Amino acid sequence: MKTNKSEESLSRNSVPILAWDFHCEHVRELKAAFADLQKVKKISTQFTWNDESLKIEERIKEEVILVTDLDLKIVFASNGIKKMTGYKEEEVLGKTPKMFQGPTTSKTTIKEINEAIKLQIPFEKTIENYKKDGRTYKCKINSTPVFNLKGKLTHFIAFEKEVLSA
């Protein structure tokens, strides 16, 4: 059966709808990462961080970023927080990361984290945290104190990623 040229052209240049869904989702993720990056840059500029060593631009797409003040109150959470924990950014702002801990969270690991914070040194730990719905997840935390250009501690920043077990 012979088809006309417009049908031939249409079938050759069509893209499955599913591909557009993936594309739109990717664009949404890029926009969210860009918005997150703008927010972190605003904090960085406001407190005159030397943020080049933090590699925020590289890490913001793959990891959740939490920024706390010196009282450990969350002042910024990247959009990935919802996917990892079930909480939206506005639900965690003003709270401490302890909100993610629960009965099975290692007390030893918590002590080690608190000691690193007290000594103002970077740390990397994997901890069992709790999602909004009560399920647990393993969270790899890479955290560092952030100093301004004058050397004064202003914030702590954590790069977090859910560790998926096999």
UniProtKB/TrEMBL annotation:
<dbReference type="InterPro" id="IPR000014">
    <property type="entry name" value="PAS"/>
</dbReference>
<dbReference type="GO" id="GO:0016301">
    <property type="term" value="F:kinase activity"/>
</dbReference>
<dbReference type="InterPro" id="IPR035965">
    <property type="entry name" value="PAS-like_dom_sf"/>
</dbReference>
<keyword id="KW-0157">Chromophore</keyword>
<keyword id="KW-0288">FMN</keyword>
<keyword id="KW-0418">Kinase</keyword>
<keyword id="KW-0285">Flavoprotein</keyword>
<dbReference type="Pfam" id="PF13426">
    <property type="entry name" value="PAS_9"/>
</dbReference>
<feature type="domain" description="PAS">
    <location>
        <begin position="65"/>
        <end position="120"/>
    </location>
</feature>
<protein>
    <submittedName>
        <fullName>Histidine kinase</fullName>
    </submittedName>
</protein>
<keyword id="KW-0808">Transferase</keyword>
